[in-house]
Amino acid sequence: MNSMARKASLTLDINPSFTSLVLDFVEKGAMAFNMADGDVSRIRLAGEEVFGYLCHTAKTGSEVTIEALNNLYSMEIRFTFKARSFDPYAFNLTAFVTPDDGQAYDLGLLIGSRAVDRFSIVHGHPEGLVLSLIKEKTYPPWSEDQAGKAVTLKNFDTKKPDDEMVKRFVREGVHHYDETIFPATYRVPARMVDMIAQGDCHMLVACGTGMEGGEVGGGIIWRFIGEGMIQFYGPYVFDQRLRSDIAGSLVDAFLSAVAKTDRSGTYTYYTTVDLPAEYFEHLGEIEYSLEDGSKQARGFFYRQLKEDDGSHVWASGPLEPFLHEVYDRLFLPRQIVSTSFEGERRAPHSVLSVEFNRPHSSATIRPVWDGEDYMENLAGHVHILEEEGLKNIFFDLDLGAPWQAKLVPALFERGFKPVLLLPYAGLADVVVFQHVQ
Predict the structure, then answer these.
(1) Which CATH superfamily groups domain 144-304?
(2) What is the pTM of this model?
(3) Quick one: which of 48, 350, 358, 405 could link to 374 by a disulfide (CB 3.0–4.6 Å)?
(4) Rounded Cα gap, residues 435 and 437, in angstroms
């Protein structure tokens, strides 16, 4: 099979007689993308259940376009269709459906959603509604014994790494840092190579010179998020003798590289004690609850890369004092436009996605689909996450989406408070709320 096959698409009528064709398309696509056997089966199941749901709910004579996308480290199945009565309730963590309820097709959608790792729903697309199901690629295990000896360099250069240097960096990162600092998503060497090849991550490393050219003394990782933000991780330093020199060189080279992009700013996400804080402004901090009951503050730092020409954001009353304080402190020119629900029609069910961060005992909720049951759905998610023992529950709200801004009063009512603002991290600025009661 060709491991670099990147995309295939199929457009057909939404009709049960095409089910076998859809299953063959999804399965063969996964095999062409070199997905593992178990992953192929789960992708096939997800495709079958979603297409079955559409056959039950779609308008007679309507079409669906199904795309299979190879993202190198994951596979995406994307359905684009005209929605008549699409109800994505089953994608909620709190969803509970049984055939006895007369909801057999909703049960299929529930099964399909659980067969993959992530999903997204776009309901403003010109071609209709876009439902994406994403399955992460399974990589073979690797031996952590390949790293571990002390790194001591005489000199170093800071540069973009090749594939082998990426893998050496990851192995050293896993050896020197736990998952609270070097996150799980970057702890598989081959996966990181594919993420960089896909363009979803970028990296610089400090490596030795001459005979030490195969040694890695440190590195820094970054990725683009939202409309104008760069999120970075590090600097990670493995050579203790040249610690401050390597950290400074990595940050200098990183800032030089991202200054050439069209992004307006960058902020720390996972950082280390070696970050030269004088290069950045203090964006804010979040107080985390630890397993032993104590508290630990985690700082976030920001660097503006381009002059901010200003923009508008959507908000509702309870949030506006927080926004004014942050915008004044960071000198960010913003017009705050107020919005609220005024009795307009809403879908019956809302959808929330959840991203877990077990090492930090945290979870982040994000709104995907608005609905009349939003208050109850949010409360249900908080209850489940607390039942799982998670100490820190967050909610990311995109101020570039008016429908999300309308959810603010419910967040305050359900015990959330704003703790951090990330400029241009979504369609506009993103506010991070933390559950405090």
Answers:
(1) Gcn5-related N-acetyltransferase (GNAT) (3.40.630.30)
(2) 0.91
(3) 350
(4) 6
CB 391 within 8 A of CB 292: no
How many CA atoms within 13 Å lie on the side-chain side of 273?
Answer: 5
Tokens of 128: 């209709």
Bond into 235 cis (ω within 30): yes
Q: What is the pLDDT, as a whole number, of residue 351? A: 95
- Determine the topology of domain 311-435 in CATH: Aminopeptidase (3.40.630)
**Beta strand segments in 82-117, E:** none
Q: What is the pLDDT of residue 1?
A: 36
Low-confidence ranges of the chain (pLDDT < 70): 1-5, 98-105, 145-148, 437
Please give the CATH number for the structural domain made up of 7-136. Answer: 3.30.565.10
User: Position 431: which residue type?
Assistant: V
Same topology, domains 7-136 and 144-304? Answer is no
For residue 28, what are the contacts with CB-CB under 8 A and spacing of at least 6? none
* Cα angle for residues 12, 17, 20 (degrees, 5° grid): 85
The residues with which 324 forms a beta bridge, in sequence order, are none
